[in-house]
Amino acid sequence: MKAITLHQPWATLIALKEKGIETRTWKTDYRGPLAIHAGKKIDTEACAIPEVRNSLQKHGFVPEELPTGCIVATTSLYDCVQMVNGTDIPGYRIPSKEYSFGHFATGRYAWILVYTKKLDKPIPARGRQGLWKTNI
Q: How large is the average pLDDT for residues 65-76?
């Protein structure tokens, strides 16, 4: 299975189905199963964003206790679409809270994630840049 490493709290927000669009500067032609790996870094500034903090708290998470260095969820990369007009993803309606969970700008790419499943127990793993292969 392919995997992608994300800083926290983004990995956990995907695992909790709060975040369904991952924004990137690069596109991928890959479609299919994708493991979500939480890197070792916790972005404390991002955790202070009210929508982020509220989404984490709703599920009983506090930033200091977010899992790191492990795979926290599986999902499926359904589509990868280049954004236009700063915030539009052609063919998709963006839930308003998603704007607090990503960097939406003209020319960036929206990775549309579906069928997300949080793992009951995170799997320790070493992350990498880009898409990488894992054995889960």
A: 97
